[in-house]
């Protein structure tokens, strides 16, 4: 079993040093007064899996330290949902549905669940009553965010894992069908004439942790740390935008290779990445980066999937014209970016050549500069040809034994 999991880790839809993908399926039922689309409501219930998978008690039940593994994994959105019954009972609607899809799970947890064939979890039954402020995040404390931050295993919150609020559902877990995926990134193409001549164009977007008005905001600190590292590494700096709330720099350096000179251009933008922000700076730059850059690194909040929502970005910046002939690497460094963005970009950019690195769990601004530089240094080491496992392992090395469940998937 261990050998198979390791092999499937190399050849499955994603590559990860600490995680594997598995198939899941379940059948569940719930009650609601809402007359909204039943498939949408079913998806709302299903998303509560996030809270349970991120529970410290749940993780530690597998013999793991929550300090090192801050969650069992995540659900790839969207899942496939089929409404089986939709019945009205007095003022309530009773909805039963079947769901199937993909989990990204920490490899030791995946091994145990595959051996057991699945697990039983308490899914919300009284959907409209499924909320209590003390059982969620102190900042993201609204009813609308409860699905991600609640923990039915926390002391004092056990009612969210018991009837009548919840009902147990068995979730079947099976191995994924192996799919061939290149074990190494095509860095020769990325560094070569990839649509930009002899230029290697890297776009790095940093968001704020809290606000642009705070000089020591962790997002700004990360931005400044990497800028200083590039200067100390021999890059020439040029300021492109002078606004303190959205500064932008260009870093340039020529790197000699046996085949000639690579002109490295690294553009770095610090900006409010909230998709609801009034400014269009982030949306326009992200569009340009996805259309033209060889490497894209985004570091900011996920907004529970909203901040890199392509339709929302295109509403501000226009349609993103993905270059089907261009090879790209993108790292979306935000919380649970695997769940939100891998399938999204796979759907939008069909038959393309982009490797997307995502996080299966929460990531933090405090470690961002070290993680990003580990990736950047591999790309800029023109004599190297590392495997994805080597790159991802080095990216997680600064985490002191912890993991974001870093992974890479191709689209």
Question: In words, what does this structure look like?
Answer:
The protein is an alpha+beta fold and 411 residues long. The protein has two domains: 2-175, no CATH class; 187-410, Rossmann fold, CATH 3.40.50. The chain is 29% helix and 29% strand. It is built from 13 helices and 15 strands. Strands 1-15-14-13-12-8-11-10-9 form a nine-stranded mixed sheet, with helices on both faces. Strands 2, 3, 4, 5, 6 and 7 form a six-stranded antiparallel sheet that branches. Strand 12 (295-299), helix 10 and strand 13 form a beta-alpha-beta unit. The longest helix has 16 residues, at 365-380. The protein is globular, with a radius of gyration of 22 Å. The model is unreliable at 1-12 (pLDDT under 50).
Which secondary structure elements does this structure contain, and how are they paired or packed?
Layout: H1 2-11, E1 14-15, E2 19-32, H2 38-46, H3 49-53, H4 56-60, E3 73-75, E4 80-89, E5 92-106, H5 107-116, E6 118-124, H6 146-149, E7 166-175, H7 187-191, E8 199-207, H8 218-232, E9 236-241, E10 248-257, E11 260-271, H9 281-292, E12 295-299, H10 310-317, E13 327-333, H11 337-348, E14 353-358, H12 365-380, H13 388-396, E15 407-410
Parallel strand pairs: 8-11, 8-12, 12-13, 13-14
Antiparallel strand pairs: 1-15, 2-5, 2-7, 3-5, 4-5, 6-7, 9-10, 10-11, 14-15
Helix pairs in contact: 8-12, 9-10, 12-13
Index terms:
about 400 residues, alpha+beta, Rossmann fold, 6-stranded antiparallel beta sheet, about 30% helix, disordered N terminus
